[in-house]
Amino acid sequence: MEKILLDVLTKNGLLTGFAVIGLTMVVSYWLSRRFTRGKLHGSAIAIMLGLALAYVSGLFTGGQKGVADVPLLAGVGMLGGAMIRDFAITATAFGVQMQEIRKAGTSGVVSLLVGVSLSFAVGAAVAAAFGYTDAVSMTTIGAGAVTYIVGPVTGAAIGASSEVMALSIAAGLVKAILVMIASPFFAPRIGLDNPRTAMVFGGMMGTTSGVCGALAAIDPKLVPYGAMTSTFYTGLGCLLGPSLLFLATQALVG
What we know:
0% strand, 12 helices, mainly alpha
């Protein structure tokens, strides 16, 4: 019976992936309510559980795709792919009201430019502090601090090594988790309680997963507004990373 069940679950990998992720979310939200009273959002806990499971899977299988290297959980790889990710990001835009977007005005645009530049500068400085002093490495890791999507996109465009691109992704993941965990605690102090500030917040932080998780813990109605500008942030970073930011870094360090 067990063999038959395993065969069915393996052959229907996508459905199994949905079930496993659904169970992970249920457990994560229960942990959030039970031990943090919602202060640490369930999405943040789910990400940490996912990273832990990916690490353990890598130890046992010797693979490089996390739980997707386990035959039973191969369907998780499809759910974690670019297609589903981009669909989820785009879908959040349908909750936005245009009159609220217009209210953001200049502040929304400025937040995007400042957010990308500041995140890049901090990431590049940290890269240099750890010995990655060439322009390609500093730019790639700095772009990773913008978001974990911008990092590898920039690295591939300017010829960074796979090691450096992996570091850029790690930098972006750390940022996403920190934004998701810390923002709900600081929200009352920075007035993060309305659509306009949510859009500025999304433009400053940029990481869509971190911003959406944080806003969901603060007020779910704010999620589409933060997601809107954070999505623009990712696109802007992909444009500026391998072009203007790379040239500026190259001019500074040679």
